[in-house]
Amino acid sequence: MTDPHALFEEWLAEARLSEPNDPTAMALATADADGRPAVRMVLLKGHDDRGFVFYTNGRSRKGADLAANPQAALLFHWKSLRRQVRVEGAVEGVSAAEADAYFATRARDSQLGAWASDQSAPLDSRATFEARYQEMKARFEGGDVPRPPHWTGYRVRPERIEFWNDRAFRLHERRLFTRAGDGWDEILLYP
């Protein structure tokens, strides 16, 4: 039996060496309270036995979806390796301390952008956003930029992790791990 988290770390390490752009990019699928799905790309910012972490504006569409329906699916597609990893599970917020610690590592312009943006809300013009950014730049000039209260992190706690390996003639290899108590069950799936 293989630990899926250890296998993921191996595959991610290989992707870091071979992917030309953003090996931590993952598609995040959510659904709102009515079941309407949405998918977008985000970046993996942490991974351990507890799950897969990303950060965003909690007032964004993804934040609203997760507040109404705290379930998500992730997809890592490493084209250079001809591999995919699919993750499905419940979502929980990270602690304020975790969010603060990660926010402090972001580039200052990204920190200011988090304050200036009402992510996913209608925007009348790019000039409005750029003016808000300049206001935040002036507001925090000469000091640290604290994490906005609406900006946070989420952890997808996997219940299913599937590893897909491309093979010739579409004879792919699929390994599915499903949560079983404190451990994992593993089966193979037909391609």
Q: What is the N-to-C order of secondary-structure elements (H for helix, E for strand)?
A: HEEEEHEEHHHEEE
How many helices? The count is 5
Amino-to-carboxy terminus distance? 21 Å
User: How does the overall form come out from the CA principal axes?
Assistant: elongated
Query: Can you name the CATH architecture?
Result: Roll
Radius of gyration: 19 Å
CATH superfamily: Electron Transport, Fmn-binding Protein, Chain A
- The level-1 CATH class: Mainly Beta
Count of distinct structural domains: 1
The residue ranges in which pLDDT falls below 50 over 5 or more consecutive positions are none
Which structural traits does this protein have?
single chain, 191 residues, alpha+beta, Pnp Oxidase, Chain A, 9-stranded antiparallel β-sheet, 9 strands, 29% helix, 38% strand
Describe the structure in your own words.
The chain is α+β, with helices and mostly antiparallel strands and about 190 residues long. It has a single domain (about 5-105, about 150-190), classed as Pnp Oxidase, Chain A. It is about 30% helix and about 40% strand. It has 5 helices and 9 strands, in the order αββββαββαααβββ. It has helices at about 5-20, 60-70, 95-105, 110-115, 125-140, and strands spanning about 25-30, 35-45, 45-50, 50-55, 70-80, 85-95, 150-165, 175-180, 185-190. β1 (about 25-30) and β2 (about 35-45) form a beta hairpin. α4 (about 110-115) crosses α5. The two termini are about 20 Å apart. The relative contact order is 0.19. The model has no long low-confidence stretch (mean pLDDT about 95).
